[in-house]
Amino acid sequence: MEELEITEKISTKEPINVWKACLLKIKENVSMMTYNTWFLPIKPIELSDSTLKVQIPSQFFWEWIDEHFNGLITRAITDVLGNDARLTYVIAEDLSFIDGGDTVTENSVSPATPIEKPKPKQTFESNLNPRYTFDNFIKGEGNQLARAAAGAISDNPGGTSFNPLFLYGGVGLGKTHLIQAIGNQIFKNFPEKKVIYLSSDIFTVEFVESIQTNKVNEFSNFYRSMDVLIIDDIQFLIGKEKTQDLFFHIFNTLHQSRKQIILSSDKPPKDLKGLDERLISRFQWGLTADIQPPELETRIAILKRKAETYGMLVSNEILEYIATNITSNIRELEGCLIKLLACVSLNSNEITYELAKKTVKEIATDRKTTTLTIETITRVVCEHLGVAENKIRDKTRKKEIVLARQIAMYLAKSLTLSSLKTIGLHFGGRDHSTVIHACNSIEEYRAVDVSFGKILDEIKNKVELSS
Ligand code: ADP
Ligand code: MG
Predict the structure, then answer these.
(1) What is the mean pLDDT of the chain?
(2) Residue 105 banded pLDDT, cuts 50, 70, 90
(3) Whose CA is closest to 337, among 328, 348, 326, 347?
(4) Kindly report the CA angle at 397 between 393 and 400, in degrees rounded to 5?
(5) Which domains does the chain have, with CATH numbers?
(6) CA-CA distance, 429 to 418, in Å (whole number)?
(7) CB of 24 closer than 6 angstroms to any ligand 1 atom
(8) What pLDDT does 302 receive?
(9) CB count in 10 Å sphere of residue 394
(10) Phi/psi of residue 67, each to 5°?
(11) From the alpha carbon of 333, which atom of ligand 1 is closest?
(12) Whole-prediction pTM
């Protein structure tokens, strides 16, 4: 009865009705509290073909939904609008568009928003996340040199002696934030400059793909044409000799023409064992700066700022408790606040000392997963299922390989912080919707097949032990 009514309404193609139909499906799968907190505030605004555009209250809100309910929303919208269905988001605060699966793409659409400088017509994706700015990067003793160099480069890319800038430091200390902030600032200062950010593992994946499709020259020329090349986590080039070789040539071209190169790594250049000596010496041509873990005062300042950003009311006492107990990693500090925020939004609790204590403890338990890589996951999954690792990236549709690939994608999504786009690239350049589909399929198998659930748990245990 209800079904019929929905179908009829949908035929009128009103966004509100399409969204209502989705909500009915979503409601069946989540608690009332979750539904009220995370789904009711979403407003449908436009429907064209099979793309529904909705407005959501904030960037944080979107990230939360994307991380926790992406599968559910995708299922609901494809049930209602068919397989081509897409959901795009507009953020109410600044009306910047966010793609249904991954991070930010276009900019302001609101006629009320003044346009400061015309954005250059980018024919490629810079991959910069606008969330990473200098403004919201808290300075401290541990990042002083790195921050100062980053500022100088943003004012004069390619023109300082900090070329390349080589930043290194432990996990979650702000390397990605800072190098992307440079990119974003250069974009602001010099809209005509071509800036690109990517991690070295994506660089490798793209390179391999270019070999397969006979496009190595195009690939190489593309990077040689940049004004600013930002490569994150350069340590992942270790052991990848052909990629290192190509990167060496790109580096030389850019450096000779005074283009800015910015690199990050978990270790200083000289400790990158297994990396070509020629690269190591070039990495030391410019400035090598480390980022050290923040001291207590900086940790408190960071927490205060983040709490403000999320619009949370947390007492100083609790912030200090968190900052005292989470010491080595800013991502964990942030994770702790987000967990607290989730607890209070979902259960309408107050943020108490007890709750903070419990959350800090949970963070310590989660710690293991942050060091896990997609490579490790792939290796363990393949070993367990007896599938050759190189097959998993092929186009093959053989049943056991498809399953292995889907399990690996699913585990990569649930056990690492990688985006859907990154995961897709790791598995033979598939796009983010394939990853979503894989995650949904695995959830479904698990729901209907107990023995599958057991196998999945076994693999997951092995993966966690290998991290
Ligand atoms: P890394 O790349 O070194 O592993 P990230 O740049 O991803 O670390 O930082 C982890 C999180 O901590 C990010 O959300 C980032 O915004 C935040 N963060 C790191 N350093 C700072 C800082 N100095 N001020 C504010 N936020 C920070
Ligand atoms: Mg990083």
Answers:
(1) 86
(2) very low
(3) 326
(4) 85
(5) 2-105 (3.30.300.180), 141-290 (3.40.50.300), 296-370 (1.10.8.60), 374-466 (1.10.1750.10)
(6) 14
(7) no
(8) 96
(9) 14
(10) -75, -40
(11) 12
(12) 0.62
pLDDT band at 207; cut points 50, 70, 90: very high
Query: 297: which 2 tokens?
Result: 């005062």
Q: Is the dihedral of CA 253, 272, 201, 231 positive or negative?
A: negative
Choose which residue among 166, 197, 235, 330 to substitute to test ligand 1 binding: the one with the highest number of ligand atoms within 8 A of its C-beta.
Answer: 330
Distance of CA 244 to CAs 80, 223, 270, 399, Å?
47, 14, 16, 35
Cβ atoms 206, 219 nearer than 8 A: yes
**Token pair in block for residue 255:** 């450096």
Residue 118 predicted with pLDDT over 80:
no
The secondary structure of 228-269, three-state, reads EEEEECHHHHCCCHHHHHHHHHHHHHHHHCCCEEEEEECCCH
Which ligand is located closest to the Cα atom of residue 146? 1
Amino acid identity of 177?
A: H
Residue with tokens 């605060």: 93
Report how far Cα 402 is from the mean position of its chain's Cα atoms.
24
Question: Could you tell me which residues come within 8 angstroms of residue 376 by beta carbon, excluding any fewer than 6 positions away?
Answer: 463, 466, 467
Give 368's pLDDT tier (boundaries 50, 70, 90). low
179 Cβ closer than 6 Å to some ligand 1 atom: no
pLDDT of residue 429: 87
Alpha helical stretches, state H, 156-225: 175-189, 200-212, 216-224
Q: What are phi and psi of 383, to 5 degrees?
A: -60, -45
Q: How far apart are CA 412 and CA 400, in angstroms?
A: 18
Q: Is the CB of 298 under 6 A from ligand 1?
A: no
Q: What pLDDT, on the 0 to 100 scale, is given for residue 6?
A: 46
- 186: number of CA atoms within 13 Å, CB side? 31
Assess whether the C-beta atom of 176 lies below 6 angstroms from ligand 1. yes
Ligand closest to the CA atom of residue 167:
1
Closest CA to 246 of 212, 280, 219: 219
Tokens linked to 123: 């024919």
Handedness of CA 325, 328, 330, 334 (dihedral sign): negative
Average pLDDT of 113-128? 58
Q: Residue with the nearest Cα to atom 5 of ligand 1?
A: 174
Check whether 96 has a pLDDT greater than 60.
no
List, for residues 411-433, the tens digit of each pLDDT value. Answer: 999 888 788 888 998 898 898 99
Rounded distance from Cα 387 to ligand 2 centre (Å): 30
